[in-house]
Q: What sequence folds into this?
């Protein structure tokens, strides 16, 4: 199995690269390819099982886009073909239409989905996330058997949100997760993240794959095609996950963090 | 009208200080909050002391400020400081109010101020430091600070043109703040234990700021701290105006070059790299203030070292060490882990760096655990790690991820019960790793450890 990590020298914030370290623990035979800004991405040359990109700085977004822009058409083709992409944190914003800061356009995105990332140079939006993932038809079951929704937990810590020209809820039909508590793509949206074929992108960090063993097991089995029985440190990860699900489901637990208060953002 | 507001703010804040004293409160920024509420530009209107000496950066601000205050006071200066309060605008305002008479005039010769780096955008328009030291800019609270490049941008945008910067030349993020400002650099060309490749999970400056090629390091201390160059465009770490060398961790001394001249025997606080930088930083600072190197060395010798972040007790043949390991700060905790794991002898750790304020309101964002080098703790002489507090299960998972076997991890829900899980191997050191808001709780846990040791000793003598 080949896992390609795009630009780990700049896309490495908030523990996100541990998603890949964890996959490597779960799949010891996997080959992890680290592709730097100076290198042509491997997935353009040969099939890879997963293309991963994690959170970066605002300047890092521009540097990454400067590279990815050259390959926009090929990226679209790969998404159409069903190549697995897992994009976490603000790396998702690169795949939208454009990024704005304080009302001004900073750069054009790749246009994979019609999102407009609007960020502030001052405010930081922090929250917890509790939501569900709908796996859809079970792999190899001819679409006849549905798996139940999987509960997903994590954090959000970002300078902005993603909106849509067609309205603030205009991306809901592409959502990767459905929020139960905590925000979606923006404070009006009913969906979190983007799912187009096997292109999975989300603001949720954690690291996502470590915090969510049920989702990770589904992902490894059904998207990466590895029939694993057990995840790495599965008992400890599940214990931590169950504790977090219970905590976040408790109405007494605040989900938004704003200057030390438990109030939704204004 | 403006002045009237200023005096009203001052007098109300002064009254609140009296009220706080009577009710037994201390170290609060309440007076500053009152003053800013009544007069938002209180600090701009204040008649400040002769010199404003600022210190900012991610790690080491408090230690550097304490050293500066101690050394300047030892030199006979009257210093205004905020070391009893917060380092944001209200904490700074409180410090000035405490120093002012009812007429609004400060009594001190100079102000030594620890300034929260993110608050600089609010503080600097109100009060322009004459000097500002930036000790380092590294990954800190994800929720508040985001990442060091963002903080560098905040500082650069807010920096007053007149402020002279004293910068860590071994930190390419800190040393590139506000490039138009006058500046000097301090650092170490080499240090024992330097490496070329990064051994840490976090390395926040991997590419050349100029051409974006991969940077190389001739000497790396930790993370992105060290001497770097770009093989493609020739960019390199800045030349040092103040350089340390010949670090003697037995005699606790080092040599410092101020300009062209080497001076010998500057006292060190302890052997941690953080604190070696802190001593060089204050030496550079005082030199910039006009002090001769010999005098700086004398003042260092006379200064009492504050030990609030590293306290050692000896009980019944055990050493109990309270070591601050900043919660939500991957780099700070990595440094603490590296330091503790590098010390000789058997150890047990109580890991309780939970952020209790977050736990009270929502739930801590634990992303930072995966930026933090828990792998340093995977050493045979660390024989038991007791994970405890609200995030104990997350610590447990993280330690497993670091390759530490179950036999060397104990889980205890409540911090005050954690000492009961210690195995108390004879002659070992017991470390209590605590966060910024669990200082009092760490004291309670330390007391329980002492009791535990006494009970064990009593039990042994009964058997005998």
A:
């Amino acid at each position: 199995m080949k896992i390609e990590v795009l630009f780990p020298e700049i896309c490495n914030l908030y523990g996100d690269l541990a998603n890949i370290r964890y996959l490597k623990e779960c799949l010891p035979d996997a080959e992890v390819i680290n592709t730097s800004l100076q290198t042509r991405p491997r997935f353009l040359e040969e099939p890879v099982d997963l293309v991963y990109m994690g959170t970066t700085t605002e300047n890092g977004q521009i540097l990454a886009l400067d590279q990815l822009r050259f390959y926009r058409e090929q990226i679209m083709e790969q998404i159409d073909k069903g190549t697995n992409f897992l994009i976490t944190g603000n790396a998702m914003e690169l795949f939208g239409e454009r990024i704005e800061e304080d009302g001004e356009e900073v750069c054009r995105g790749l246009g994979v989905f019609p999102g407009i990332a609007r960020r502030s140079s001052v405010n930081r939006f922090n929250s917890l996330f509790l939501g569900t993932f709908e796996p859809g038809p079970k792999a190899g079951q001819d679409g006849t058997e549905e798996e139940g929704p999987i509960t997903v937990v994590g954090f959000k810590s970002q300078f902005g949100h993603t909106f849509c020209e067609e309205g603030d809820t205009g991306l809901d039909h592409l959502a990767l997760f459905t929020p139960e508590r905590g925000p979606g793509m923006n404070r009006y949206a009913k969906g979190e993240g983007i799912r187009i074929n096997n292109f999975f992108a989300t603001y949720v960090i954690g690291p996502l794959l470590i915090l969510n063993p049920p989702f990770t097991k589904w992902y490894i089995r059904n998207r990466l095609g590895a029939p694993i029985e057990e995840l790495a440190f599965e008992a400890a990860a599940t214990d931590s996950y169950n504790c977090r699900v219970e905590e976040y489901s408790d109405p007494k637990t605040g989900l938004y963090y704003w200057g030390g208060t438990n109030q939704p953002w204004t | 009208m403006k002045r009237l507001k200023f005096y009203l703010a001052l007098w109300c804040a002064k009254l609140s200080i009296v009220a706080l004293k009577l009710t037994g409160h201390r170290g609060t920024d309440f007076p500053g909050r009152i003053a800013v509420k009544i007069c938002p530009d209180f600090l701009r209107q204040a008649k400040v002391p002769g010199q404003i000496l600022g210190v900012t950066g991610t790690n080491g601000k408090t230690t550097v400020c304490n050293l500066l205050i101690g050394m300047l006071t030892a030199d006979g200066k009257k210093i205004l400081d905020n070391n009893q309060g917060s380092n944001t605008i209200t904490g700074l305002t409180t410090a000035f109010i405490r120093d002012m008479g009812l007429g609004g005039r400060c009594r001190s010769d100079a102000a030594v101020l620890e300034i929260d780096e993110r608050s600089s955008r609010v503080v600097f328009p109100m009060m322009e430091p004459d000097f500002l030291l930036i000790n380092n800019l590294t990954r800190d609270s994800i929720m508040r600070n985001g990442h060091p490049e963002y903080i560098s941008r905040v500082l650069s945008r807010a920096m007053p043109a007149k402020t002279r910067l004293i910068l860590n030349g071994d930190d390419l993020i800190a040393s590139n703040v506000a490039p138009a400002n006058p500046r000097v650099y301090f650092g170490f060309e080499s240090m024992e234990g330097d490496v070329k490749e990064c051994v840490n999970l976090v390395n926040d400056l991997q590419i050349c700021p100029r051409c974006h090629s991969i940077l190389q390091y001739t000497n790396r201390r930790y993370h992105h701290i060290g001497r770097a160059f770009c093989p493609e465009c020739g960019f390199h770490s800045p030349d040092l105006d103040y350089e340390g060398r010949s670090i003697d961790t037995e005699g606790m001394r080092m040599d410092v070059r101020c300009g062209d001249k080497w001076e010998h025997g500057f006292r060190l606080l302890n052997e941690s790299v953080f604190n070696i930088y802190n001593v060089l930083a204050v030496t550079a600072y005082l030199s910039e203030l006009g002090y001769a190197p010999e005098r700086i060395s004398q003042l260092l010798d006379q200064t009492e070292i504050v030990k609030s972040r590293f306290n050692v007790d000896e009980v019944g043949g055990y050493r109990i060490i309270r070591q601050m390991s900043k919660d939500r700060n991957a780099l700070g905790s990595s440094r603490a882990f590296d330091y503790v794991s590098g010390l000789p002898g058997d150890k047990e750790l109580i890991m309780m760096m939970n952020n209790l304020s977050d736990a009270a309101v929502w739930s801590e964002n634990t992303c930072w655990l995966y930026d933090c080098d828990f792998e340093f703790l995977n050493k045979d002489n660390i024989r038991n790690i007791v994970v405890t507090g609200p995030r104990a299960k997350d610590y447990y998972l993280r330690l497993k991820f670091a390759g530490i076997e179950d036999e060397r991890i104990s889980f205890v829900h409540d911090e005050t019960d954690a000492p009961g899980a210690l195995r108390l191997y004879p002659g070992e050191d017991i470390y209590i790793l605590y966060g910024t808001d669990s200082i009092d709780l760490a004291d309670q846990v330390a007391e329980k450890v002492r009791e535990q040791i006494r009970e064990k000793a009593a039990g042994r003598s009964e058997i005998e």
Remarks:
- The first helix of chain A runs from residue 18 to 26.
- The two ends of chain A are 45 Å apart (CA to CA).
- Chain A touches chain B through 49 residues (CB under 8 Å).
